[in-house]
Amino acid sequence: MRTSRLRTVHPVLWAGWAALAAGGVLCVVGWYGVSGERFAERQLPYLASCTIPGAALIISGAVLLAHGRSSVAAARVEELYGLLVAAEPAAADGSGHAALAPLAVSGELLRVPGGTLWHRADCPLVAGKAQAVPVDSGLVASEALRPCPICEPAEETG
Q1: 118 beta partners
Q2: What separation, in Å, do the N-terminal and C-terminal C-alpha atoms of the chain show?
Q3: Which site in 2, 8, 18, 135 is 20 to 30 Å from 45, CA atoms measured?
Q4: Which residues does residue 111 pair with via DSSP β-bridges, in sequence order?
Q5: Could you tell me which residues come within 8 angstroms of residue 122 by beta carbon, excluding any fewer than 6 positions away?
Q6: Which pLDDT tens digit goes with each residue over 96-151?
Q7: Residue 136: how many other CB atoms lie within 10 Å
Q8: Strand order in 117-120's β-sheet?
Q9: Which residues have CB under 8 Å from 10's CB, separation 6+?
Q10: Is 37:49 a contact under the CB 8 Å cutoff?
């Protein structure tokens, strides 16, 4: 799926390549003209009419190519962002924000010794960790541990 913006960038790339080619031709013609002249005063017209404009065209072409390529990349990023936004679930509450499913739904509560948070057992922060131990209800009541902001276990106990 290509956007119309991608199609408008290609002329910039073509103009860059054309400027590079024209600048190269002018530099070759200027070099050929200069090489046939023995005196510096007879070489200056070739420098002024071919070599200097050729170098300017080469620089312009390089700038156009760099700008065109960054525009193509920006258009692709915007296209991918559009696909990402279109793939988000529809809002459930009508507020414009998508209703997200909870990350963890397990009823078992765990903590890591020395940690400051308590988690649901299927929270990605403690899932698969052998050192995770069940949470004491006394620790939760004393507020020595805070609920994890990722899995939000406070909803079940509060």
Answers
A1: 111, 147
A2: 49
A3: 18
A4: 118, 133
A5: 104, 105, 106, 151
A6: 555 555 555 667 888 888 888 888 888 888 877 888 888 877 777 777 788 888 77
A7: 14
A8: 133-134, 109-111, 117-120, 146-147
A9: 68
A10: no
